[in-house]
TrEMBL record:
GO terms for biological process, alphabetical: DNA replication initiation
UniProt keywords, alphabetically: Coiled coil
Pfam families per UniProt: Rep3_C (PF21205), Rep3_N (PF01051)
Protein name from the UniProt record: Initiator Rep protein WH1 domain-containing protein
Coiled coil regions in record: 423-460
Family: Belongs to the initiator RepB protein family.
Length: 503
């Protein structure tokens, strides 16, 4: 069993898995696995199925049911909250947990309005292997594993110590000595079989530890576990299309097998042997894994297959003709005009191809056939192509799609600078000059306004003692002020008058 869990970044960013035990976290991730590709808003598990994918080993059903019940209780307590300028929304993701003790099933209802948090499998989702997750013994290992998978392409993750405590639900009473003993040491032990390299670096600010950095090397390309000979597992009546689908799902981890994949592969099978198509898929997978410039390798592989812009090699199995004849006999219906892979290898030319029989003259011929387009037209062609790929495939990684376009499509176009009509150029120059004149006039007017302000200030009257009403120079009892008291009063009145600028 090698299930892959994918979940929306909103699910990770909005949700803090507080007070969950290790087994309860396994149940939660197992549920996510079951509903990830389902269009239904309700899923049913048998107890045996749930035990298997959540790595539950205790044979006591009472303990199992109790653990399910506690998981349900904590899930109900997890309330999502979204807020914008117009509204506040609060909800639970799993409103119903139905445990049937007699039938030994669990029925889970997903919130229909927000099911996209688990169901919409685009590149906006993160993914990790459920088997790795459930094999971890410590709940702290599981929570950290989820965090590290968000940064699996960078190979490191830095936490402020406060964020680290919150993300891993570490008790407030734990001091660093407790964290080292009860959190970090179990994590190091758990991660030995997950990461080929794992390192904990404590970053200090003075004497205190301010941050923790985790360096790790992770590869999602792991050997597929073979329980028994695949030929014995696959029903003889499943047919080549079904066998190819099963091969695809079990051989290429992290790639979502969609209806579009099914259509493309079935068309290829109509004119190619099963073994030939398998080798074709394997070559594309190896190529995508070896390209260090690609971050999301499963998505890139998917685009290669769906876009039919693959790296085509000059391989031809010894039994190709025999296999091809055998496949055509088994699939005599629905033959269409789709090129075989051999024809495609002779026909298609892309930057990624490595073929010995391409001559310099052929390459020059391709260059001469370029279409002249303006930069604006080229950008529109590029965007339309990317939009089409997003609609037809599960790949929404803009950077990957741009890389594929640049490699496979850009050579078809020659971006030119359009010639400018002389009259239009003169008109443009005239408009530029008029704009300059208008700007100078604006600056001149601003200078005039500033000069006027200066002149107005010069006209402001400066008040003296003669301007003060004698009635103001008396005490509260009405007596005429004299000496120092009179002088202080005069200075105060003059100060106020000159500030206002009025008499």
């Amino acid at each position: 069993m090698n299930e892959i869990v994918k979940y929306h970044k909103d699910f990770e960013n909005k949700l803090v898995l507080k007070n969950f035990t290790a087994s309860e976290l396994n149940f939660l991730m197992a549920i996510c696995t079951k509903v990830r590709d389902k269009k239904e808003n309700e899923v049913i598990f048998s107890f045996n199925e749930l035990k298997n994918i959540s790595n539950w080993t205790n044979k006591n059903d009472k303990d199992f049911i109790h653990s399910l019940e506690m998981t349900n209780k904590k899930l109900i307590e997890l309330t999502f909250r979204f807020e914008n300028e117009k509204e506040i929304i609060m909800f639970v993701l799993f409103p119903t947990f139905h445990i049937d003790k007699d039938e030994k099933t669990l029925k889970v209802a997903v919130n229909t309005k927000f099911a996209y948090l688990l169901n919409n499998l685009s590149n906006n989702f993160n993914w990790y292997q459920l088997k790795d997750f459930t094999s971890l013994k410590s709940k702290y290992s599981k929570l950290l594993y989820k965090e590290l998978m968000l940064f699996k392409d960078t190979g490191y993750r830095i936490f402020k110590i406060e964020d680290f405590r919150k993300k891993l639900d570490i008790p407030e009473k734990y001091r660093m000595t407790n964290i080292k003993q009860k959190v970090l040491t179990p994590i190091e032990e758990d991660f030995k079989h997950i990461f080929s390299k794992f390192e904990i670096v404590k970053i200090k600010n003075g004497r205190d530890i301010a941050q923790i950095r985790f360096n790790f090397t992770y590869s999602n390309i792991k050997p597929v576990e073979v329980v028994e000979d695949i030929e014995k597992v696959v029903n003889e009546n499943i047919g080549p299309a079904g066998e190819l689908e099963q091969y695809f799902k079990t051989t290429f981890p992290g790639v979502n097998y969609t209806t579009r994949h099914k259509e493309v592969l079935e068309k290829l099978l109509q004119n190619n042997s099963l073994e030939y198509v398998k080798q074709y898929l394997k070559d594309q997978w190896e190529y995508s894994q070896n390209d260090n410039n690609v971050l999301n390798k499963p998505a890139y592989f998917s685009s290669l297959i769906l876009g039919e812009k693959s790296v085509l090699k000059d391989y031809l199995p010894a039994d190709y003709e025999e296999k091809k004849a055998e496949e055509r006999n088994r699939n005599s219906k629905g033959i269409n005009t789709l090129f075989s892979l051999k024809d495609l290898a002779e026909k298609d030319v892309t930057d990624y191809e490595v073929r010995k029989n391409i001559t310099p003259e052929q390459i020059e011929q391709q260059v001469l056939l370029k279409v002249d387009v303006t930069e604006e037209e080229y950008n529109k062609i590029k965007q339309d192509w990317i939009n089409k790929q997003m609609e037809e495939t599960s790949n929404n990684d803009l950077r990957v799609l741009e890389s594929i376009f640049n490699a496979s499509q850009s050579k078809k176009y020659n971006v030119i600078v359009p010639k400018i009509d002389k009259n239009i150029e003169q008109e443009n120059n005239k408009n530029i000059e008029l704009n300059k004149i208008a700007e100078l006039e604006k600056q001149l007017q601003e200078m005039k306004n500033k000069l006027k302000e200066v002149e107005d200030k010069k006209k402001i009257k400066i008040y003296t003692v003669e301007d003060i009403d004698p009635k103001l120079l008396v005490s509260k009892s009405g007596k005429k002020l004299t000496g120092n008291a009179r002088q202080v009063k005069i200075e105060k009145i003059l100060s106020e008058l000159n500030k206002r600028g009025i008499k």
